[in-house]
Amino acid sequence: MAIKIKTAEEIQKMRVAGQLAANVLDKITPHVVAGISTGELNQIMHDFMVNEQGTIPATLNYHGFPASSCISVNQVVCHGIPDNAKKLKNGDIVNIDVTVIKDGYHGDTSMMFEIGAVKPFASRLCQVARECLWLGIEQVKPEATLYDVAFAIQQHAEANNYSVVREYCGHGIGADFHEEPQVLHYAAEELKEIVLKPGMVFTIEPMINQGKAPVKLLGDNWTVVTKDRKLSAQWEHTLTVTDDGYEIFTLRHGEVPVLP
After folding, report:
1. Which residues pair with 109 in a beta bridge?
2. I need a labelling partner for 182 at 20 to 30 A (CA). Which of 25, 109, 239, 240 fits?
3. Nearest to 207 by CA among 241, 183, 191, 190
4. CA 133 remoteness from chain centre
5. Burial of residue 242 (number of CB atoms within 10 Å: 0-12, 13-18, 19+)
6. pLDDT class of 14 with cuts at 50, 70, 90
């Protein structure tokens, strides 16, 4: 496994790309309301990325993906395809996942939105998934391992009677959208061998299911849903290992850690 250690120059480019990705989520937030379609949300973000930021939407045409963002509603775990016919409604929970490319480097982030009056159990899932992300991030420091990250996430999810998706995970990121290592969110033994070093850059993006962990891929070959059709929630940040901990590249305006 060849894990790329980023140079100071590369780290700075990723810092810029990460902040631009965060800005896309800040930009779209006021628009994520009942009645708007996921296709309309995607178009707003596309126009902002291309016309205002001068960034490239990394998902557009990535292995044939047809949109500039992934928008996953309710039981959709990840890779939801925006659709002008899919309107958000009161009570939905929605993940919006964006990746921008700036000066050849990627910034990747996602967050959950609650539409109108969300049922308490749905809001709770979103909250615990967010806590899982931050508990994972808090483990990041030199000489820790990806096992430490995954264990913290899995332990918190399961303590709240949720499950962790196993088929999809975080990843190294840089000039390439997906690099080594794979950042699993469950405590697989092989993760103990991946020791964190300053200059490693990766995403942490736990997908937390209300019901059981198994998922299935729909016929469009992109959309992933929970097999039991129960809700799923996900939050994501891109970060680097520093000499004494971590630096998150994709913090949104005013965002602070959310821990249990």
Report:
1. 98
2. 25
3. 183
4. 9
5. middle
6. very high
Q: Which one-letter DSSP state was computed for residue 147?
A: H
User: Pick from 237, 209, 236, 204: which is nearest to 225 by CA?
Assistant: 209
Q: State residue 179 phi and psi, 5-degree precision.
A: -125, 175
| pTM (two decimals) | 0.97
Cα 56 to Cα 64: distance, rounded to the nearest angstrom = 15
Read off the pLDDT band of 244 (50, 70, 90).
very high
* Domains of the chain and any CATH numbers: 8-248 (3.90.230.10)
Average pLDDT over residues 79-97: 98
Q: What is the mean pLDDT of residues 66-74?
A: 98
3-state secondary structure of 172: strand
In the sheet that 179-183 helps form, which strands lie side by side, from edge to edge?
179-183, 170-172, 201-204, 237-241, 246-248
Q: Which two tokens stand for residue 178?
A: 């997906």
Contact 175, 104 (CB under 8 A): yes
Parallel/antiparallel/unpaired status of strands 207-209 and 163-164: antiparallel
What are 44-67's pLDDT values in tens digits? 999 999 999 999 999 999 999 999
Can you spell out the DSSP letters for 15-82? HHHHHHHHHHHHHHGGG--TT-BHHHHHHHHHHIIIIII--EETTTTGGG--SSSEEEETTEEE-PPP
Both tokens of residue 240?
Answer: 């680097």
